[in-house]
Amino acid sequence: MSIHIESKKEDIANIVLMPGDPNRAKYIAENYLDDYKLVNTLRGQLAYTGYFNNKRVTVMSSGMGIPSIGIYAYELFKFYDVDYIIRIGTAGSLHKDIKLMDVVLATSSYSRTNFPLQFDGDTKREYDSSKLLNEKIIETSKKLNKKVIPGKIITSEVFDVYVDIDKFESLFPDDNFLACEMEAFCLFYLAKKLGKQTTCLISVVDSKYDKKEVDSMTREKGLNDMIEVALNSVLDL
Asked: Among 101, 104, 182, 212, which is most exposed with the fewest C-beta within 10 angstroms?
């Protein structure tokens, strides 16, 4: 039985899009889904199940950070028979060629978290995302003429904006990472352990190479390219 999700099993689709922000989940349901209903409000994490072009999908917020997404992804996989989760979130650029509002597709994530060690003694630091989902997302982005940049990312337990970014990057093994966010590694790890398919699309909202700021309203509602690519990529799953 799920502890942190109040939905009935039949209320959750086997495909879940997972933003961090509950308001973004609400925005996606209201603007993209037909015949949707609110199926979870427990602890403020909102989940909506509806139809996108006749495909049944659930959009559920994960909250921020590895422990939070770890709870919700695990319970969705174990207790709701979810097969696919696509995280759709925001990130900071770590590469000069990755600009504000670019959309990055995480092919793998590296993290120094101890989540795997505590979960089952695993000490691996990098996990890949689903090749199946990544291929569908790249194919869909080309059909929609929307730019998606595939590459490796970092999942951090510290919000990188608050720290010396150069010292922060020195903790990681090379300089080939495109962006940094706070959830994807855990999602990829759980998928590998539980035989599921996951990936992560992230819109870049800050950068060490650009001092401009993306406001909260744009973060919430201005990420439509990412959302549309994610939704259209699951239509034939």
From this structure: 212
Across residues 43-68, what is the average pLDDT?
97
C-alpha R_g of the chain: 17
Q: Which residues are catalytic?
A: 206
Helices and strands (DSSP H and E) totals, the chain:
8, 10
pLDDT tens digits, one per residue of 135-157: 999 999 999 999 999 999 999 98
What per-residue string of b and e applies to 134-163 under the rule 16 or more CB within 10 Å gives b?
bebbeebbeeeeeebbbbbbbbbeeebeee
- Number of domain units in the chain: 1
For 189, the token pair is 């790890």
Strands 34-40 and 126-128: unpaired
Question: Which SS3 state, helix, strand or coil, does residue 72 take?
Answer: helix
Domain that holds residue 227: 9-233
Position 2 in a domain: no
- What CATH number did the domain enclosing 159 receive? 3.40.50.1580
Q: Could you tell me if residue 56 is inside a domain? A: yes
Question: Alpha-carbon distance 110 to 16, whole Å?
Answer: 23
Q: Which residue has the higher pLDDT, 203 or 216?
A: 203
Place of tokens 């505590």: 118
How would residue 159 be classed by pLDDT, with cut points 50, 70 and 90? confident
Residue 150 lies in a domain: yes
Please give the DSSP secondary-structure letter assigned to residue 12: S
**Strand pairing class (34-40; 84-93):** unpaired
Residue 149 lies inside a defined structural domain of this protein: yes
Q: Identify the bridge partners of residue 179 per DSSP, sorted by sequence position.
A: 93, 153
Distance (Å, rounded) from C-alpha 68 to C-alpha 74?
10
d(CA 14, CA 33): 16
